[in-house]
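[Automated response] Your request has been received and processed.

Submitted sequence:
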Amino acid sequence: QVQLVESGGGLVQPGGSLKLTCAASGFAFSTYAMSWVRQVPGKGLEWVSGLSSDGGTTSYADSVKGRFTVTRDNFKNMVYLQMNNLKFEDTAVYYCNVHARGSPFWGQGTQVTVPS
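Generated structure:
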């Protein structure tokens, strides 16, 4: 079955950096676009970044543009989110996401906390 496992979150001071990793399995990874989304408790999901199947096309929410970089390794079935210059408002649970077999899938998420 489709499985996504996020890791790399943690507590980081404002201005710091983190690199999130998503390990994917159970589907033809190299043929699917991938996304990162995030959720603050009590709020809805916010799309953060997207990446085409070959990694050649990326897109970002305005709130993270210029600070976050999304990449993928189709040999390892991994997606990465490099987050620099982190801000308090980046605090959230981050999920990688794929629409496969007609349905959306998310992992368990990884918590990123940036204290104010």
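Summary generated for your ticket: The two ends are 39 Å apart (CA to CA). The chain has a mean pLDDT of 96.
If you did not submit this request, please reply to this message.
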